[in-house]
Amino acid sequence: MTDAADIPVRVRPEIAALPAYKQGRQASGDAFKLSSNENPFDPLPGVAEALRAESAVNRYPDATARRLRERLAARFGVTSDEVHVAAGSVSILSQLILATAAAGDEVIYAWRSFEAYPWLTVVPGAVGVQVPLTEDARHDLPAMASAVTDRTRAIIVCTPNNPTGPVVTQAEFDDFAAQIPSDVLIILDEAYAEFVTAPGAVDGTLVLARGTHPNVVMLRTFSKAWGLAGLRIGYAVGHSRILDAARSTGIPLSVTAHAESAALASLDVETELRARVAVIAERRDRLAAGLREIGWRVPDAQGNFVWLATGDETMAAAEAFEAAGLIVRPFAGEGIRISVGEEESVGKVLRIAESIVGALP
Ligand code: PMP
User: Fold this and answer.
1) Mean pLDDT for the stretch of residues 14-31
2) Which is it for strands 106-111 and 127-132: parallel, antiparallel or unpaired?
3) Rounded distance, CA 118 to CA 141, Å?
4) Does the keyword Plastid apply (predicted)?
5) Distance, CA 117 to ligand 1 centroid (Å)?
6) For labelling alongside 223, which of 65, 116, 172, 191 has CA 20 to 30 A away?
């Protein structure tokens, strides 16, 4: 192959500088994969059958995922124009940013948060404005509101925050949203909403139902609680003018008929879904309580993961977990995110966490 330095094609320097997307390591053997906030359960009843029934793979899917949009619209009491479906909520994040932020515009988000936010912002040449989390790993919404300038086009609020876990409360969100100019898009990224048990947490469906902030778009996914990460399907609910703009920036036909049918089949068995979510939330609470008992300061965990602030010892701590057959997600110099997985992984995580807690500063 020609040496990279000899390729004259002009790649945008900010794109060349982007690190490659780093996926959570795949587990081998009998290791537990706790690095990607996936659902440990098999697909919900009816999903396998729905996938088998989708035999016409020689045909393109319905470009607008109309059946699923109508179903979700009925669920949330909105029109189907006010629902947008795409290949994962990360696609919708990309589309919303492309639709609002041009070169030099600003996108505000908390940091540390979902690692896609920085690169999705760099792609259109926009500037990411990172507002540090508070001491207890929560969004600092007053600081985020103060960061707004006349170049701000979008603000992302991630609740529960990936990777640290706490939610934004409804009262905090209301105060915040009231301060944001109405021409700035607020993206409420609720990828983990179904797992939230904290009273008073913000709920995008209520924000939208009140209709007081038409600049808010709620983002949800079938990847986490619904267990369809491999099929790539997520959705947004919000004003049709904003979602039409997002649709215009998306790659057409990215949502497969398989993904749409699996999502519809999942929505048919919501009772089962709720039962599974309750199991995961209980496991999470047991894990967080156990970690606190052995001396870890674990932020309020409201998603399907817990956060260990391992600081400078992060990579060594991740190795200790890995050596014990637990694939976790390290963020060098900051901490480790551990997904709530199979029941048997809980005790194992606690044992390793106890063995390393003494080595920390
Ligand atoms: N938002 C947050 C906060 C996430 O953690 C993730 C996945 N890790 C996503 C969005 C994207 O999920 P998906 O594209 O699978 O819907």
Assistant:
1) 80
2) parallel
3) 18
4) no
5) 10
6) 172
Strands (E), the chain: 32-33, 83-86, 106-111, 127-132, 152-158, 185-189, 216-221, 234-237, 305-308, 326-327, 329-331, 335-339
For residue 115, give Cα distances in angstroms to 119, 121, 161: 8, 11, 11
**pLDDT (average), residues 69-76:** 98
With 80 as the cut, is the pLDDT of residue 252 above it? yes
* Ligand 1 atom index nearest CA of 90: 14
Main-chain phi, psi angles of 272, to 5 degrees: -60, -40
For residue range 183-227, what is the model confidence (pLDDT) as tens digits?
Answer: 999 999 999 999 999 999 999 999 999 999 999 999 999 999 999
10-39+271-357 and 47-267 share one fold: no
Q: Are strands 32-33 and 326-327 parallel, antiparallel or unpaired?
A: parallel
Could you tell me if the CB of 95 is within 6 A of ligand 1?
no
35 lines ligand 1 (CB under 6 A): no
Question: Is residue 113 lining ligand 1, measured as CB closer than 6 Å?
Answer: no
Contact 240, 79 (CB under 8 A): yes
Q: How many CA atoms lie within 13 A of 299 on its CB side?
A: 28
Query: What is residue 6's predicted lDDT score, i.e. its pLDDT?
Result: 83
Answer whether 27 contacts ligand 1 (Cβ < 6 A).
no
CA 229 to centroid of ligand 1, rounded, Å? 9
CATH number of 10-39+271-357: 3.90.1150.10
With CA atoms as reference, report the closest residue to 93 among 178, 195, 220, 194: 220
Distance from residue 116's CA to the centre of ligand 1 (Å): 8
Answer yes or no: is the C-beta of 105 below 6 A from any ligand 1 atom. no
Give me the CATH topology for the region 47-267: Aspartate Aminotransferase; domain 2 (3.40.640)
